[in-house]
């Protein structure tokens, strides 16, 4: 099996860790959270797809609607405050992290092949290169997402009581997930290079052997 090398085993461990962290960050609503020190915070917490508000209203519009509780961020009821909930940087964060998760799903399918594929298979090196490239691509997309959100998420120009809003554990999982994906991608690429070199050496040895046999026959 492909993972029965020390390097391959570590690559697999980092892949599983990265996928777990990315998945948790993708589905949990704790990217940004109020620290609980404000007496009556209008904002409570937010993830990529869910936001929790408390008597939240938009003073820039002429209506008395107040929003309470946790809802899907694209809920129809929220359309009147979409310009607040979905600024450009947050939409970019959603897009790039969703891209990360989608690419990673494809990568996990290839990892499943890696786990059961023989190292002597003709396309084993190609599989390693594809897995490594997929992981690195997912990590780059994830980096764009976490850097974008990290730069603007707790800014004073977005959610109310900004001084009490902090990056929370879902965001931390996203950051660690991206780091694990970089490590896994590099290890898979290193593994591909190692196996390619071994395969080239074996082919060169076989070619030299055949040439020697032909020379002895002549």
Automatic annotation (TrEMBL):
Keyword Nucleus: no
Origin: domain of life: Eukaryota
Membrane topology: Multi-pass membrane protein
Keyword field contains Membrane: yes
Protein name in UniProt: Uncharacterized protein
Gene3D superfamilies: 1.20.140.150
Gene Ontology BP, a term: septate junction assembly
Cell location: Membrane
Membrane-spanning parts: 9-32, 95-117, 124-149, 169-190
Organism: Ladona fulva
GO annotations of cellular component type: membrane; septate junction
């Amino acid at each position: 099996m492909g993972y029965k090398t020390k390097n391959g085993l570590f690559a697999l461990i980092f892949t599983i860790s990265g996928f777990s962290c990315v998945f948790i960050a993708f589905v949990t609503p704790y990217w940004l959270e109020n620290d609980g020190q404000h007496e009556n915070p209008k904002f409570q917490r937010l993830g990529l797809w869910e936001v929790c508000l408390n008597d939240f209203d938009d003073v820039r519009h002429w209506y008395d609607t107040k929003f309470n509780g946790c809802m899907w961020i694209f809920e129809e009821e929220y359309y009147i405050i979409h310009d607040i909930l979905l600024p450009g940087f947050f939409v970019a964060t959603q897009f790039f992290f969703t891209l990360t998760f989608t690419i990673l799903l494809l990568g996990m399918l290839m990892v499943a092949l890696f786990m059961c594929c023989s190292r002597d298979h003709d396309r084993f090196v190609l599989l390693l290169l594809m897995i490594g490239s997929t992981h690195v691509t997912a990590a780059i997309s994830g980096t764009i997402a976490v850097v974008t959100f990290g730069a603007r998420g707790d800014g004073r120009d977005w959610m109310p009581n900004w001084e009490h809003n902090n990056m929370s554990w879902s965001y931390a999982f996203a950051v660690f997930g991206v780091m694990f994906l970089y490590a896994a991608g590099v290890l898979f690429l290193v593994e591909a290079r190692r196996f390619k070199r071994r395969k080239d050496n074996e082919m060169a040895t076989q070619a030299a052997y055949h040439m020697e046999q032909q020379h002895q026959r002549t």
